[in-house]
Design goal:
Helix content: over 70%
Number of domains: 1
Largest sheet: none
Structural class: mainly alpha
CATH class: Mainly Alpha
Shape: flat
Length: 230
């Protein structure tokens, strides 16, 4: 326990890196998920096939393999391009490699989350808005998005809970995140169980706080939706 207290600032720094990694990955996944859902719903045959290939690819590979491919493959690719254009050696960021891999991976799941939420919106409401002469942007902002958020929030919360736990795998590329620093500290003082128990508690805290926030948001949007319907 004394060693855990001694290394508390180090673990706090790793916790911050993990949280930043998770939030940046979620932002990228949300953007990719929104684009993917738009491609599946309103895109042409090419867009739908691209999105289908994207989601099928992600379902077929583990996130750990994708992280290794992005980091080591990206490093090799940048090295080749640097040699061609005379830039020399280019070092790829471990943090952004993790963000790219995790965001790309979970963007496929958010694609289906957003698509399913959109399909749940009653078609009659959109048709009624068009009949009133509302412009497409107004329909999107006033009719579609509020209901899309309400129907998607449960699935979005599930993806976030899995995503934040997936950040642990970035330690394999030596990113100094919570798991990586706890592993190093545990080995240095020969108390791995103590430090990984602390990691266990911190991840539980992450998921508990996150679930509380999403539960509040889900209740809020459910009540708002009932009030709007009334």
């Amino acid at each position: 326990m004394e060693n855990l207290i001694l290394y508390a600032p180090l673990l706090a720094r790793g916790t911050l890196v993990t949280l930043e990694l998770a939030l940046a990955s979620l932002l990228l996944a949300t953007i990719l998920g929104a684009l993917g859902a738009a491609g599946k719903i309103g895109g042409g045959p090419v867009a739908r096939n691209v999105v289908f290939g994207y989601t099928s690819l992600v379902r077929g590979i583990p996130d750990l393999v994708l992280i290794l491919l992005v980091y080591f493959g990206g490093q090799r690719l940048l090295g080749v391009l640097g040699g061609w254009f005379g830039f020399g050696y280019i070092d790829i960021s471990k943090f952004w490699a993790g963000v790219t891999a995790i965001g790309f991976f979970y963007g496929a799941y958010l694609t289906e989350t957003f698509r399913g939420a959109y399909m749940t919106i009653p078609r009659g409401q959109i048709e009624a808005a068009r009949a009133l002469g509302l412009r497409r942007f107004v329909i999107l902002w006033k009719v579609t998005l509020p209901q899309l958020v309400r129907f998607a929030i449960a699935g979005y919360a599930n993806v976030w809970q899995v995503l934040i736990k997936s950040t642990a795998v970035v330690s394999v590329i030596s990113l100094q995140d919570l798991v990586g620093l706890a592993n190093d500290a545990g080995k240095s003082v020969r108390e791995p169980f103590t430090f990984f128990a602390a990691v266990f508690v911190i991840y539980l805290l992450f998921t508990f706080v996150s679930q509380s926030i999403f539960n509040w948001a889900e209740r809020r949007y459910t009540i708002k939706g009932r009030n709007d319907a009334a």
